[in-house]
Amino acid sequence: MNIVNNILINIGSTEANELVIPEGVTAIGRDAFRDCSFLEKVILSEGLLNIGDYAFSYCRSLKEIVIPKSLKRIGQGAFRGCEGLEIIALPDTVEAIGKDAFSFCKKLKKVTLPKGLATVSQGLFEGCRGLLEVTLPDTITAIDAGAFKDCVSLPQINLPDGITQIGDYSFTNCRALPHIHLPNALAAIGSYAFQNCKSIEKFDLPPGLKKIGCWTFAYCKSLKEFSVPYGITHIHNHTFLYCEQLEKVIIPETVTTIGNSAFAYCLKLTAVSIPDQVTYLGEGSFSNCKELKALVIPDSVEEIGDYAFSECKSLTAIIIPSHVSFIGEGLFRGCDNLSAITLPERALRIGNWAFFGCTRLTACKLPDSVAEIGDHAFQDCRSLHFLSIPGSVHRIGKYALADCINITYVNMSEGIMQIDDYAFQNCIRLSRANVPSTATKVGKYVFHGCQELS
Question: Is the pTM of this model over 0.90?
Answer without folding.
Answer: yes
